[in-house]
Amino acid sequence: MGTALVTGATAGLGLEFAWQLATARHHLVLVARDAERLEEVAQRIRVVAGVDVEVLPADLSVREDLERVAQRLAQPGDQDTRPVGLLVNNAGFATGQRFVDGDIAVEEQALDVMVRAVLVLSRAAVGQMTRRGRGAILNVGSVAALTAGGTYAAAKAWVRSFTEGLAVELRGTGVTATVVAPGFTHTEFHARAELDMSQLPEAAWLDASDVVAEALADVRRGAVLSTPSGRYKAAAALLRLAPRRAVRAVGRYR
Ligand SMILES: NC(=O)c1ccc[n+]([C@@H]2O[C@H](COP(=O)([O-])OP(=O)(O)OC[C@H]3O[C@@H](n4cnc5c(N)ncnc54)[C@H](OP(=O)(O)O)[C@@H]3O)[C@@H](O)[C@H]2O)c1
Fold first, then answer.
1. Is 61 in the pocket of ligand 1 (CB under 6 A)?
2. pLDDT for residue 77
3. CATH T-level fold of 3-250
4. Is the CB of residue 192 below 6 angstroms from any atom belonging to ligand 1?
């Protein structure tokens, strides 16, 4: 039984990661901004799954908060603290705006949460993991990384590229790095950004439980790239092969 730290654990994919990991007998450290909701989730998991759950309320776009989470990840473990063996960098959001006339502060916050936090937390975790000779990092990217979907796609392309480079550096250390690239998934993501998804056909949607189960299976087998579902594996293959002009013509995904 190991310990997993999940960011963005109060909703959507992060909440599902927390439940599936607890069911697989992992102790948990849960991170998100909403402290009350975080404690409710933690309490439910403690009672139902019988694992230990620490809560670490933090806004990952705030440097001091990020540093507290990094410090927890860097802890090698002693009689009071378990070392984190799996880091799930999941927290993220859609800006819900165009870059050219959008609020630059929102863009910076998105970059802080989906890029800087992933960088800082991965670095904090790999130190103790490589010293112990085991561990795994799972970064949540997106199929949007392969599209011309604005700054969100750019951030997720960074996550994919960063994770591949990290996986190369980690070869032979006993520590793995995986990036999961979900397609459209039923979570709070689109409503939070007030995105109108009514035109999207039902066949395009994935369930968070399926995405998380496939991502965790890919982590267990040490895969670097994880694209849950046959549908999105095919879509990703198409996006990789298609001329970029055609990809740009398809439009935005935020
Ligand atoms: N849903 C999709 O279609 C889809 C597709 C591809 C990739 N993804 C990616 O999947 C990941 C999870 O998204 P989701 O769909 O599960 O969204 P969600 O249901 O909206 O959940 C987002 C989680 O992130 C947390 N969070 C947001 N901003 C934060 C911050 N500044 N600091 C700490 N925690 C923060 C939220 O909690 P608090 O509000 O309490 O902080 C919440 O727990 C994201 O990286 C997203 O980009 C989603």
1. yes
2. 87
3. Rossmann fold (3.40.50)
4. yes
